[in-house]
């Protein structure tokens, strides 16, 4: 895994988080609540940060991508860990809670004073661009008009977050059948720019 070649970047990321009290507090809570999600967030952030840089996004946009990725699954702080740990897809009320994690992310961002609309869009769009876009029905996850006002670059960053999220799920999630390769899993699920699948697969080498 190229992740392990990122050890310097990993240290840099942890250092960055230390300097951001809101991120530090949220990630600390996540580490206690659900360690696998905490680890997923860090791994996926290293990928999206490098990918955005490599694809030529400027430092300001790379920062937005990084922040969006760090924040994207924070709503899982409000989903019981027994649901997050389920090997088979939860049903009934549990599935409802799982589906709501994007709306919970929005609530947590607002409660934490994070109001940057681009950052919020990138974080909240992380189940978009997918064949099974479950929170898409949950329009309430969106505040104001983030979706209408985004620029194409912000939309592209949101796609980078999704494809990096998918890569991590394809490599680490336990509740998946192993009949497909990681690349096949991402291609099956991701409906965004297919060139990004090739790009992101470099991190699985
Ligand atoms: Fe998610
Ligand atoms: Fe995620």
Kindly describe this structure:
With 205 residues, the protein is mainly alpha-helical. It has one domain (2-204): Hypothetical protein af1432, CATH 1.10.3210. The protein has twelve helices and no strands. It is globular and about 45 Å long. The N and C termini lie close together (6 Å). One fe (ii) ion binds next to loops.
> What is the correct CATH architecture?
Orthogonal Bundle
What is the CATH topology descriptor?
A: Hypothetical protein af1432
List the uncertain runs. Answer: none
Query: Structural class, judged by helices and strands?
Result: mainly alpha
- End-to-end gap: 6 Å
Which percent range describes the beta-strand content? under 5%
Rg from alpha-carbon coordinates = 16 Å
- The helical percent reads 55-70%
Number of strands: 0
The overall number of domains is: 1
State the CATH class. Mainly Alpha
Q: What profile does the largest beta sheet have?
A: none
Listing every helix as H and every strand as E from the N terminus to the C terminus, the arrangement reads HHHHHHHHHHHH
Number of helices: 12
The residue-averaged pLDDT reads 89
Superfamily (CATH H level) name: Hypothetical protein af1432
Judging from the principal axes of the Cα atoms, what is the shape?
Answer: globular
């Amino acid at each position: 895994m190229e992740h392990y070649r990122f050890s310097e970047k990993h240290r840099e990321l942890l250092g960055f988080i230390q300097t951001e009290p809101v991120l530090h507090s949220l990630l600390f809570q996540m580490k206690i609540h659900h360690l696998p999600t905490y680890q997923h967030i860090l791994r996926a952030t290293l990928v999206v940060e490098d990918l955005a840089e490599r694809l030529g996004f400027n430092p300001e946009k790379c920062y937005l991508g990084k922040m969006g990725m760090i924040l994207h699954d924070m709503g899982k702080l409000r989903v019981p860990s027994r649901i997050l740990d389920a090997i088979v897809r939860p049903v009934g009320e549990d599935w409802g809670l799982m589906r709501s994690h994007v709306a919970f992310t929005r609530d947590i961002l607002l409660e934490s004073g994070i109001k940057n609309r681009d950052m919020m869009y990138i974080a909240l769009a992380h189940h978009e661009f997918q064949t099974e876009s479950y929170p898409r029905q949950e329009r309430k996850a969106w505040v104001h008009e983030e979706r209408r006002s985004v620029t194409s670059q912000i939309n592209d960053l949101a796609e980078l977050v999704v494809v990096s999220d998918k890569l991590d799920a394809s490599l680490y999630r336990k509740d998946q059948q192993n009949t497909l390769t990681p690349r096949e899993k991402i291609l099956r699920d991701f409906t965004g720019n297919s060139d990004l699948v090739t790009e992101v697969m470099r991190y699985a080498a």
